[in-house]
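lol ok so funny story. i was supposed to be doing the assay writeup but got distracted and ended up predicting the structure for this chain instead. priorities right. anyway since i did it might as well share w the group, maybe its usefull for someone
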Amino acid sequence: MEEEKGHHVHFSEDTDAMGNTAITVKEKAEGQEFEAHVGFLQINHRYHIDVTVPVKDADNGYKIAEPHGVYCHALELQVTKGGELLVTFELLAHKEKLLREKIHLLKPTKGQLILNVLARVLGKGKGTPMLRDNIKCVGVEADDESEASDWQGFS
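and the output, tada:
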């Protein structure tokens, strides 16, 4: 994060040189493990996110592995027109700062493909992030520390 003149804040990693707000996907282990950087999210918000994974055998029948993660799980797999794997998943931003979650997919051949999801989660009162492309907020979880509680306290 860099300060610019006029008290504006610039997030250098949030957009690329062309101003795109796409999710970045990097291959960590050839055909085995990928990392998706989804940008800034907000605490206690639930998101549906589409990530395109550049695998060469996407149309050979990948499947969602069981069991699902508690905070992050795949909902649907599709093959794109370009022959890549489109993974739609749900993510609950359940903790502040750096959030790391894993999605396991069964490969058409033996083994698994692991998609590591990385997000930066802003805490309550820290602002509202601009979501990257292919990310939709689908809900907000109840805040346990809400001042709007109906609890009357001890009498």
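Residues 1-5, 9-18 have pLDDT under 50 and may be disordered. The domain at 17-140 is CATH 2.60.40 (Immunoglobulin-like).
back to the writeup now i swear
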